[in-house]
Amino acid sequence: MEEAVMKPTKKGGGRLCCICNLRRAALKRPKTLEQICRECFYEVFEEEIHQVIVDNQLFKPGERIAIGASGGKDSTVLACVLAELNRRHNYGLDLFLLSVDEGITGYRDDSLETVKRNEVQYGLPLKIVSYKDLYGWTMDEIVKMIGLKNNCTFCGVFRRQALDRGASLLKVDKVATGHNADDIAETVLLNILRGDIARLSRCTSIVTGEDGPIPRCKPFKYTYEKEIVMYAYFKRLDYFSTECIYSPNAYRGFAREFIKDLERIRPRAILDIIKSGEDFRISTSTKMPEQGTCERCGYISSQKWCKACVLLEGLNRGLPKMGIGRSSRGLNNDPKKDKDMKQSNGTKSIENKQCGSLDF
Amino acid sequence: MQLTLEFGGGLELLCESVKIHKVNVDPPNGTEKFIMKDLLTWVRTNLIKERPEMFMKGDSVRPGVLVLVNDCDWELSGQLDTTLEDKDVVVFISTLHGG
């Protein structure tokens, strides 16, 4: 990791770092508006994440932890920082990289090359699970069959399960994902707009799925995207930044843009939205979906069959629309349940969502 | 004056997938200084080949695009009013692509 060569400059008035008062400031922190130098930035960035890990007891000594690794900026920085903190603070963790190969030529194959380099750079063993192996279909094949409508629904449902299956193959205790503060603020906003009470109540949790097969945690819950990208840039980390070829323009839509506009006016707004999400209290009389298991594959499901099995059955029978939208086509068509569903704000049906509606 | 411009985080896709551009620019007629605002106009006209809305919003960069002048956050040097000088290095990085 070669550091960028710094050219002596007169810009920014050569203002000094407000932490060390020795070196020239290199960035303005969105969280605090402090102007700090590169070295102090590395220090506060890493130690704040350490503090989040300690305060929330995200890991226990001896645990096996998989880092959900896409090759993108967030997971690359997460792998780098967790490997470093594990050494520095003796967490005693066995860390692994876990990647999902959706089978998208020209996109995932390239980003997986990045993850393979990360395996060497950070000395973390890598496991790749593919849609082809798990489901018998690649995304390329699915798109060939169903076209460019609803494809992100298939991909999202399959990815969520694929990560869990990979995690259980690795026999890990927990999966750490790279969701950052901006992502979480965006999701809070989306869930409010959609009236999705079930997701709103869990999307700000730093640990989720403790009742499911493998819990997930978000060490970057309070970490700004700007700082993640600055860290990756200053440290010259190797990451991949191409959009998925099947969802061009899906830059997470209007909520994302709105969050970025807010950040420009008042960077604290991101943390404030997360706080608002945390402080929401769901009325105890609100009926929440019950958690069961899929009769077909045993995965967690609030219906007879899990979403992945419904979608897969549709693909295999040549009826790919099965399981898409709120309609009553499909295999979970039980009139009693349908009625229940309406009472519980319809949170069980998965409508087609643009990709980038993050998996929480 | 000569500048080195670098596009990253996916923004290079807007300029024919070329990440580093060595360019020659001159202050607009009747002025002596060349500032970031002038550079953005110049980049939009001369380098961005597609989807300019991914790079700019109004007369500034689109929120979520980071800018560094000689490896220093442009928020420390006055953003659009930052004066550029010969041999400066300006980096644009999008934070908007997946993680």
Automatic annotation (TrEMBL), chain A:
<dbReference type="InterPro" id="IPR035107">
    <property type="entry name" value="tRNA_thiolation_TtcA_Ctu1"/>
</dbReference>
<dbReference type="GO" id="GO:0005739">
    <property type="term" value="C:mitochondrion"/>
</dbReference>
<feature type="binding site">
    <location>
        <begin position="68"/>
        <end position="70"/>
    </location>
    <ligand>
        <name>ATP</name>
    </ligand>
</feature>
<dbReference type="InterPro" id="IPR056369">
    <property type="entry name" value="CTU1-like_ATP-bd"/>
</dbReference>
<feature type="binding site">
    <location>
        <position position="74"/>
    </location>
    <ligand>
        <name>ATP</name>
    </ligand>
</feature>
<dbReference type="InterPro" id="IPR011063">
    <property type="entry name" value="TilS/TtcA_N"/>
</dbReference>
<dbReference type="GO" id="GO:0002144">
    <property type="term" value="C:cytosolic tRNA wobble base thiouridylase complex"/>
</dbReference>
<feature type="binding site">
    <location>
        <position position="100"/>
    </location>
    <ligand>
        <name>ATP</name>
    </ligand>
</feature>
<dbReference type="InterPro" id="IPR014729">
    <property type="entry name" value="Rossmann-like_a/b/a_fold"/>
</dbReference>
<dbReference type="Pfam" id="PF16503">
    <property type="entry name" value="zn-ribbon_14"/>
</dbReference>
<protein>
    <recommendedName>
        <fullName>Cytoplasmic tRNA 2-thiolation protein 1</fullName>
        <ecNumber>2.7.7.-</ecNumber>
    </recommendedName>
</protein>
<feature type="domain" description="Cytoplasmic tRNA 2-thiolation protein 1 C-terminal">
    <location>
        <begin position="292"/>
        <end position="322"/>
    </location>
</feature>
<comment type="pathway">
    <text>tRNA modification; 5-methoxycarbonylmethyl-2-thiouridine-tRNA biosynthesis.</text>
</comment>
<keyword id="KW-0067">ATP-binding</keyword>
<keyword id="KW-0819">tRNA processing</keyword>
<dbReference type="InterPro" id="IPR032442">
    <property type="entry name" value="CTU1_C"/>
</dbReference>
<feature type="domain" description="tRNA(Ile)-lysidine/2-thiocytidine synthase N-terminal">
    <location>
        <begin position="65"/>
        <end position="248"/>
    </location>
</feature>
<feature type="compositionally biased region" description="Polar residues">
    <location>
        <begin position="343"/>
        <end position="360"/>
    </location>
</feature>
<dbReference type="GO" id="GO:0000049">
    <property type="term" value="F:tRNA binding"/>
</dbReference>
<feature type="binding site">
    <location>
        <position position="183"/>
    </location>
    <ligand>
        <name>ATP</name>
    </ligand>
</feature>
<keyword id="KW-0694">RNA-binding</keyword>
<feature type="binding site">
    <location>
        <position position="178"/>
    </location>
    <ligand>
        <name>ATP</name>
    </ligand>
</feature>
From TrEMBL, chain B:
<keyword id="KW-0963">Cytoplasm</keyword>
<keyword id="KW-0833">Ubl conjugation pathway</keyword>
<dbReference type="InterPro" id="IPR016155">
    <property type="entry name" value="Mopterin_synth/thiamin_S_b"/>
</dbReference>
<dbReference type="GO" id="GO:0032447">
    <property type="term" value="P:protein urmylation"/>
</dbReference>
<dbReference type="Pfam" id="PF09138">
    <property type="entry name" value="Urm1"/>
</dbReference>
<dbReference type="GO" id="GO:0002098">
    <property type="term" value="P:tRNA wobble uridine modification"/>
</dbReference>
<dbReference type="GO" id="GO:0034227">
    <property type="term" value="P:tRNA thio-modification"/>
</dbReference>
<protein>
    <recommendedName>
        <fullName>Ubiquitin-related modifier 1 homolog</fullName>
    </recommendedName>
</protein>
<comment type="pathway">
    <text>tRNA modification; 5-methoxycarbonylmethyl-2-thiouridine-tRNA biosynthesis.</text>
</comment>
<dbReference type="InterPro" id="IPR015221">
    <property type="entry name" value="Urm1"/>
</dbReference>
<feature type="cross-link" description="Glycyl lysine isopeptide (Gly-Lys) (interchain with K-? in acceptor proteins)">
    <location>
        <position position="99"/>
    </location>
</feature>
<dbReference type="InterPro" id="IPR012675">
    <property type="entry name" value="Beta-grasp_dom_sf"/>
</dbReference>
<dbReference type="GO" id="GO:0005829">
    <property type="term" value="C:cytosol"/>
</dbReference>
<feature type="modified residue" description="1-thioglycine">
    <location>
        <position position="99"/>
    </location>
</feature>
<comment type="function">
    <text>Acts as a sulfur carrier required for 2-thiolation of mcm(5)S(2)U at tRNA wobble positions of cytosolic tRNA(Lys), tRNA(Glu) and tRNA(Gln). Serves as sulfur donor in tRNA 2-thiolation reaction by being thiocarboxylated (-COSH) at its C-terminus by MOCS3. The sulfur is then transferred to tRNA to form 2-thiolation of mcm(5)S(2)U. Also acts as a ubiquitin-like protein (UBL) that is covalently conjugated via an isopeptide bond to lysine residues of target proteins.</text>
</comment>
<keyword id="KW-0819">tRNA processing</keyword>
<comment type="similarity">
    <text>Belongs to the URM1 family.</text>
</comment>
<keyword id="KW-1017">Isopeptide bond</keyword>
